[in-house]
Amino acid sequence: MGSQPSMLPWDEEQEEIKKDRFTSLDKGETGTLSQEDFLRIPELVIDPLGDQIINAFFPEGEDWVNFRGFTQTLAHFHPIKDNKKSKDVNGPEPLNSRSATLDGRSKYLR
What we know:
mainly alpha; Recoverin, domain 1; two-stranded antiparallel ribbon; 6 helices; lipoprotein; metal-binding; transport
């Protein structure tokens, strides 16, 4: 309000970004996206995993994805914040930590 720009909460702002991206990809204005719509993203076309990323949006046998499916699939690519990390420096180390990887995973997989 007034001369100050309105600030959306982070979740609402992210939702708006997703809607804008979905709308920009939906060239046919059908409310759905096809694989061809994803192939208009140059970064996906040249990415070695591009086909796998695109296929993640389409359950087997489906030719299109709606906004809900689009956002659900995007959630798989979003990093998870772990606010419950152990404060105990002597506690167990995560399996995917740098030192666990450098030491070799075999001792953690026994």
